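Quick board copy: two proteins, each given as sequence then tokens.
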Amino acid sequence: MRSREGLDEAEVAFFASLQQLMRVTARPLPKKVSRICAVDAAYRSDRVAAVATEAVDGRTVARGVYKGRFSLPYVPGLFYLHEGPFVTAAVNRLKARPQLVCFDAHGAAHPRSAGLATICGMVLGIPSIGIAKSLLVGRVEPGEEGVRRITYNSEVVGFASGNAAVRYWSPGYSVSLEELEVLMPEHGPTCLRLMRESHRLAKEEVNARRDSRRLG
């Protein structure tokens, strides 16, 4: 039987089960993180462009670009099927392997505890975090003005930062909640800057006349 999103119900159940199996930690996050990447995608009709922007010690040094077309539709809760192939391809276009990848998506702050940031980090084999613009599950607890905890099912699953433009941070692949809490004050500004840059460049790429896969 087909779901409303166009996938068979068995497909949705299978991919959701696979998603839950990916809540693992293997490759450790380096004690000193200097090479950070943020990646985002933009869409136009069935076209997609993903851009990964990499910085070393806060200075942008490289970009990776991938342009393609969607085959799988967006299914709520299975966002990684829709965008994941393209953002991982963009990261793989970077000449140097980053130590940390930031995704415009959720990690642990997800109904299945493993959003796109978790799964794509695992596929890449690189520690990852999610930095989302909207809250998917749980609630933001009252706290300090700068950083507040996100709780879901009585557990802390991430943090919220900012006031006018709130961002929701959660661990992805091979990053613990404690490590994320340490990373945010030190590398948070770089992560957010790279995210904005990747988002802007992805929009420019998808709107460009030439629609081909290329390295930026």
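And the next:
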Amino acid sequence: MISWVLVDEEWPSRPRVWVDGSGCDCWLLLGVQRDPLTHAALWNEELKRDPKAYADTLDRWVDYLDELGAKAVLEGAAILRRRTGRRNWFRADRIPPGRPEPASEHLQRVFRSQSYLSDLADDALLLDEMLCLVESVRIEQGLHCHDGGYVVDSMTLVLDEGLGFRAGVDQRTAVLVPLLDGARPLRQSIDVAANALALGPDDLEAFTQGALAVVREMLELGFVVRIQERALRGPN
């Protein structure tokens, strides 16, 4: 568990510097981001019984953070795994509101997928992989009424476990997602989706590249797994 100040850089920058060269993979998870006064107030609530001591402490904390140039104070977790002899990876994500819940399996799944992807020479190699949605993924749709019926406005993948990530998908991706069932290589799933969308040869390459980017992100966040990995680990 860590906390750090945000000055003018991107929020993951400081922790990334801390782990560079450590020989560890790192998944940085941001839990909360608070302005200096709110941070000071929450961490000194026990002093509220003495208003003067409380006010003096808040002033001291805020002045110190101001000296550091802090625009905010962030709190989260840096999950480290030593992995020597390979190129280490660093990933940063925000924990969705209302989390966390027990997330051991989700964390381990993300580490396995991220390590696989970091060693992948070319994303095109994913086309030969057989991929499957994890059982805890569900789909939410947003609808509106139109001409006496319902029209889909939006579709969101929800990981109903662990860190509970959510990912919006467009109409084309929505056709591909149910085909990630472990029954065929990704390239065949993309071909089936392209046929369902009536895409011509000129559109197929762009669709394939977009699908690769989406699938990579789904692997990184733990929405899908490789069948080969699942077979090696068994049904659980």
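Board note added afterward: The mean pLDDT is 92.
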